[in-house]
Amino acid sequence: MTEFAHLRHGMVDVQLARRGIRDRRVLNAMKQIPRERFVEPGFEEFAYEDGALPIANGQTISQPYIVALMTEAAELKPPDKVLEVGTGSGYAAAVASRLAKTVHTIERHEDLARIAAGRLAALGYDNCIVHTGDGTRGLPEAAPFDAILVAAGGPVVPDALKRQLSIGGRLLIPVGDSEQEQSLLRITRLSDTEYDEETFGAVRFVPLIGEQGWAEDGTRSASNHVPGRTHFRSLTEMMGAAVEPLPSFCDPDFGALFDRFAQSRVVLLGEASHGTSEFYQARAAITRHLIENHGFTTVAVEADWPDAAAIDRYVRHRRSRGPDEKPFERFPTWMWRNTDVAAFVEWMREHNNGKPAGKQAAWFGLDIYNMRSSIAAVLFYLDSVDPEAAAVARERYGCLTPWQREPSTYGRAVLTKGYRKCEAEVIRQCQDILGKQLDYAASDPDSFLDAAQNARLVASAERYYRIMYYGGAESWNLRDTHMFETLGHILDAQGPRSKAVVWAHNSHIGDARFTEMGAVREELNIGQLCREKFADAACLIGFGTHTGTVAAASDWDGKMEVMQVRPSRPDSYERQFHDAGVVRGLLEFRRDESLRRRLLEPRLERFIGVIYRPNTELQSHYAEASMPQQFDAFLWFDETNAVAPLGPEHRRAGLPDTYPFGL
Ligand code: SAM
Asked: What sign does the CA torsion over 39, 42, 48, 50 have?
């Protein structure tokens, strides 16, 4: 493959496919057409960058994404006759010529038209016919057209173009009062007199100059005033109309709003920070509803497996491991030891009371950080079912003993002291336990699942800490792959009809391919893996806020503080919700295709983890994403509050000391 072909394929993948262009014919056409041959001499090296480039006469060759978006929206078919207004370099005409039978393209600048005609002929695009003239009048001699694509922005939709559409024909045109920004419209001719109109988002084109466009001096041409002109809805208006208001958390109507997602095998509920009460409360209310009404029996959370297992024993009325069991003691404790989680845990215990094991709802952890407790849990299990195997396991895990308290230093030790043999030992231990499933699991499958998962965790964690030392995508990918596989093991253990709700941060839940994580850093996540495995049976719901307070630390291992969340940035998705005046609401992207398309173009999105650094907020907490592709729906709370960590005052009389978080 030549270097340009390589760049072209990269452009199609990153700039088009990942931004939501789905039509394979459009993507394939744009993989073939040598854009470097349409730019001005000297600009070839920029031909596959993500933007418009200057051409002669002060005009531009449009951004590849816009060409793809318009061409896809025009729904060109092989027998179609197409008119393009604004030939410019001829590139968009060449793309259309691969998808339709004939392309007439008209350019007002004679020089541009001549150069483009020569170029298209030289490259063999023989079904393109270039004309010179004012395209706002259309091309009556060749009309009607199955599609008309206008590559310049006018103040109104020229009447001539509408009239030159065949019935069923599509006109794509940027329209707006200002030359700075227009709305991309698709007008479909339904009958002699009727037209349908849809908006496809904000765009910015050079002006359409002509009889039914702008005058040369930037004013409106005399004849372009069309009475009763359509009112184009702003993005804020569209958002305001599309977002469904949320009732209070305890209102049954709150949960019922999520019935539409109940057919999913996995419902993934995100959060924009690890310390926001409304996010936990909303997830609890949705999960309660899904458990009570739709057969969900698993809650799988971004918490360490052995810690979550202690909660699971509590909610399923199983025996605790005793006074040594003190889950969620590690930083950041407030993430799970908070009043919202405690209330939900209490609800699960109550819900499970008196139910047979198969009908109870279980609480599992997907994360890998607590290697020490996992080792202890494997040994505890083997001590009770197979003491000889326990002795072998003790020996094998002994290799990791020096790092159990500070596993993050393990990677360096492996490098310098050749501790590589730990890898083989922990893998063998995991295989041994899995190999004895038939013996071990027969009497108590739940305890076997717990032990097997802990053994898997030790093997993943050994690798995780080893490669974490190098940084980069590999350790992130290993962690998210482990979390995804753990979810799979849980679902498998519960049978083919089992359904799970996942609680994790937006960065794990929102499909990574449509964020900087995937597009720039090659990171994947649970949301992406779930979509790849479960397709439409995976539902990804993100959460967000404009401002308020959050529980977070300033540094890793630091003290929890209640911090003020800065109002969201003007160039973020969050600000769109805020400006639309949404106080609390649910936006399901597939319910409004015009809005979905308007939101597709990547914007900034805020990610707060357990650390919040307001002073460097842009660099530390914002990343670009295409929200309607990242999530299926988004839950909005304009102003939010920090979670309340559990303190001694929450201790309950009569309950064990460990209730429910080992206080
Ligand atoms: N499709 C072109 C490409 O792929 O290179 C990009 C076109 S450029 C963004 C817009 C073009 O529209 C300019 O070349 C401009 O001269 C032309 N234009 C503006 N008003 C026009 C009109 N009334 N009739 C024909 N062409 C017009």
From this structure: negative
Tokens representing 640 are: 């939010």
DSSP 8-state secondary structure symbol assigned to residue 230: P
Distance of alpha carbon 537 from alpha carbon 345, whole angstroms = 26
- Preceding omega of 332 cis (within 30 degrees of 0): yes
Question: Where does 156-297 show beta strands of DSSP type E?
Answer: 165-175, 182-189, 195-203, 244-245, 266-269
Distance 142 CA to ligand 1 centre (A): 19
Beta-bridge mates of residue 304: 367
What is the pTM for the complete model shown?
0.69
* Cβ < 6 A, ligand 1 pocket: 59-62, 85-86, 88-89, 91-92, 106-109, 112, 134-136, 151-152, 205-206, 208-210, 213
Residue-wise pLDDT for 328-373, tens only, equals 877 888 999 999 999 999 999 999 999 998 899 999 999 988 888 8
Q: Which residue's alpha carbon is at the smallest distance from atom 7 of ligand 1?
A: 88
Which residues does the annotation mark as catalytic?
62
- Cα-Cα-Cα-Cα dihedral sign, residues 290, 292, 298, 304: positive
d(CA 45, CA 63): 15
DSSP per position, 424-464:
HHHHHHHHHHHHTHHHHHTT-HHHHHHHHHHHHHHHHHHHH
Q: Which of 36, 65, 107, 150 to mutate to test the pocket of ligand 1 (most atoms within 8 A of CB)?
A: 107
Task: Show the domains of the chain with their CATH numbers.
Answer: 59-232 (3.40.50.150)
Of 370, 371, 364, the C-alpha closest to 490 is: 364
Give every CB contact of residue 156 below 8 A, 6+ residues apart in sequence.
175, 212, 224, 225, 226, 229
Residue in 340, 310, 339, 338 with CA at minimum distance from that of residue 326: 310
Q: 282 CA to middle of ligand 1, Å? A: 50
List C-alpha distances in Å: 45 to 37, 41, 67, 172: 11, 10, 19, 30
> What does the pLDDT look like over 369-417, one tens digit per residue?
888 889 999 999 999 999 999 999 999 898 887 777 777 777 767 766 6
CA distance 276 to 274: 6
Across 557-567, b (16+ Cβ under 10 Å) vs e yields: eeebeebebee
CA geometry: angle at 331 spanning 523 and 477, to 5°?
Answer: 15
- CA pair distance 219, 199, nearest whole angstrom: 24
Number of neighbouring beta carbons within 10 Å of residue 180 = 8
Distance CA 111, CA 548 (A): 57
Locus of tokens 């394929």: 9
CA dist., res. 123 & res. 448, Å (int) = 67
Q: How far is the CA of 205 from the centre of ligand 1 (A)?
A: 9
